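Z., the sequence and structure:
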Amino acid sequence: MHYQQDAISNYIYSGEYHQKYNQIQVYRQPNQRMQPEQQQQMELQQLKQKNIEQEALIQYYVYEDFQNLINLIYSYQAVKKHFKNHPGHPAIILSKNKIKLQLNISNSIHSDLYQTNKNSQDQTILKVQKQNVKSIIKKMGNDIQMNDLDKESQAYLEQYIKYSLGDYVELKQFELEKTNWDYNFNQGVLDKVLPQISYVDEQIRSLRQRKCYNIPTAQQIKLKAKEYERLTESKLLINYPQNSYNYRSPQRQDNQKFSQENAKQQFKQFTNISQSLIFSSGSRTQKQQQY
């Protein structure tokens, strides 16, 4: 035992031991320096990915919200055209209220975007997207082929610019017009709305994974809105055929518009086939939803 201890002691104090010890220390020092550097690089990469994801989410909320509004505006024009001889038809009021409700939703969305994206980078991204939407609206107004919105519809877009696309967004809620009929709960409408909410949630989850949103052009936005308009027209023709009482010229007692029971039934019918528009994302996959 004494001999073994002497052998170990002799090795520890030998030059060979010190040489190997120094080699180990030389190896350890770079690795110890690399760990903080690798950690920093990893954190920077994670931050970069988070910023890319946030940019995609901002773009999604801005453009999908605008698409929803423009869809409803084109739909409203189809409703007004369909009931041009009956400007007081409850369907027109309901369609107009949907635009106002969407303006309220847009204002809330942009107010939230303003409040939750306080750092300079996110604020810059948000401003750029808002400016691009303004440019799209201007292009739709100046392009002869695209300029098919009436003055009332253009006024809604001006309100949208004023209350949602400014650098600073204050809460603004438009009051809905009153109608003579009450909105009734309809389970069928609810069954359509809930899957659409799930669809939006799925889009956001997918967007977080892809970290990329394809910004639509003015032409693409217009095409989707026109599809929505055509869908509205087809539903109106089904539910309000042109040979129905709705299209009789109001004369004598007809000046009271429609009989109370007939108008009330029509309003319920129109409500049931139109509620889900508010939750539309403007996607082609939603073309099967009812107006």
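The radius of gyration is 31 Å. Residues 50-233+261-276 form one domain.

Let me know what you think.
H.
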